[in-house]
Amino acid sequence: MRATNLKELKESGWESRSVKAEIQSNFVKLLESGELLFPGVLGYDNTVIPEISLALLSGHDMLFLGEKGQAKSRMMRRLSDLLDEAIPYLDIPDLPIHEDPLNPITRKAQEFVNSHDDEDIPIAWWYRHDRYAERLAPGTKFADIIGEIDPAKLLSGTSMSAEDALHFGLIPRMHRGIFAMNELPELDELVQVGLFNILEERDVQVRGYPIRFDIDVLILFSANPSTYNRSGKVIPQLKDRIGSLIKTHYPIDRDLGIEITQQEAESSLLDEQLQVVTPRFMLEILEQITIEARKSKYVDQQSGVSVRFSLANYKTMIASARRRGILHKESPAVPRISDLGHLTSSALGKLELDLMGSHQMTETQVLEHIISNAIKTVFEEYVEQHGLSEIAEIFGRGVRIEVGDLLRSSDYAERLSNVPDVWNKAFEVNAAEDVAVRASCVEFILAGLHATDRISRHQQYGTIDYQIPE
Description:
Elements: H1 6-12, H2 19-33, H3 48-58, E1 62-65, H4 72-78, E2 86-90, H5 107-115, E3 123-127, E4 132-136, H6 142-145, E5 147-149, H7 151-155, E6 166-168, H8 170-173, E7 177-182, H9 189-200, E8 203-205, E9 212-214, E10 217-223, H10 225-228, H11 236-241, E11 244-247, H12 254-268, H13 280-295, H14 307-328, H15 344-347, H16 355-358, H17 363-386, E12 401-404, H18 409-415, H19 435-451, E13 456-460, E14 463-467
Helix pairs in contact: 2-3, 12-13, 12-14, 13-14, 13-17, 17-19, 18-19
C-alpha cells in the first residue's frame, strides 16, 4: 500500500535519493542478477554496452554518437527501465515539477510543506516510464527545454523577478527523471549555452532573472559523427561537460545483421495467414545489399545506411513472395531474386547519393548496381562451395530461361525439364524438394551467373530472360 500523505511516507521509511543514485543502485542489482541491460539490442555486448555500464556506474551524463539506425534512441529510452517503478511527489496544485516530498526545491512547495502538518500534505506517485522525456533538437528554443518568463503571469500581477512568473521547460519539468536530446549538433547555440549550468552545476537560470534552483536529472544526447565533429556545430564547453561519449556501430558481420533484421521484422509484421519460407541465400543477399551500400562510393557514407534500410527491404521481399503465393495458391511462399526487383519502393529515399561519386547515375541505377554486387558476392561464396560454375556451360548450347516474380513455381520445373542433370547442383545451395524453394534456387543461380558476367539478361515488365552472350 503506497503512502498518500507525507506522514505515511515518512513512517514507511522511504528515503530520498538522486536519480543517478537510483539508477546506479538498480543497475548494480541488474548486474548481480545477470539480466540483460538492453534486451533485444544485438551486437553490442562486447563494445557499446560495457561503455554504457561504466558511464552509469560513474554517474555520467551521456552522448550516444553514431550513424542513423544504430539503436541510439532505443538504448536511451531503455535506460528508464533502471528507474524505480514509482517515486512519490508532492501532489500540490500548480506545482511546475514533481517535487521530492523530503527535499522540495521550489518556493511554493517549500512554503506549503512548512505551513502544513505532514498528514495534510498529499502525496502521489510518478511512474517509471513517465519519468523519461526526449526532444528533437531542430527547431528547439530556449523556452522549450529551459524556460521563459510567462507574459500571462506578468499581466496577472506577478512580479517579473518572482519564481511564479516563470514557465518551465522540459528539463526542469523532468526534475528527478531522464531527459534526452536527439541530434545535439542541430541545437541552437543559445540553447547549448543554457545547458552549461545544468550539466555542470545542476541549476537552472532563465535569462538574466535572479531565480535559480537545483534540479536532479540525467541528461542524454545523441548525435551523428559527421555533424558532431564538425567545427562550430557543438560548443566546446558543452562537449567538455558531457561525462561519457558512447560510440555505436553497425553490425560487425552479415550473420548478425540477418539476426537483427529478422528480430525486428518478427516484432512488426502482421500475423501471416500464408507461411513464408526464406532460403538462407536470400537472407544473405538482402543483408549483403546493405553492406554493399555502406561501402559504395556512390553513397554518402557520412549519412550512413540505417538498419531500417535492411528491414524495409526484407518486408518488401516477403510481401512480394506472399502476393505470389496468394495469387497462385502456393504454400509456403518462397522469396526469389525476382522479388528484389521491387526494392526500389522500399530502398529509394533511404540512400543519400554522394554527388561527387555518383556523377550522372540516378538513385535507381545506384541501387541496381548495389544489388548486383550483393548477388555476385554471395554467389561467388556458393560457387566455391558447390562448384556451380559448370551450369554456365549449359547456356552455350542456346538454352534460354525466363523467370519472374509472378511465375508459378511449377513453371520452373517445366523450363528445366530439357536441361542436363548438372542443374541438380543448383539445388544444393538449399536442399529441398519443394518446388517453390527449387524455383528460388534457380533464380539465384541465374542471377549469380549474370552478376559474374557469364550470361546475359533481358528484363521487361516483371520478367527476366537469361541467355548466353553473343
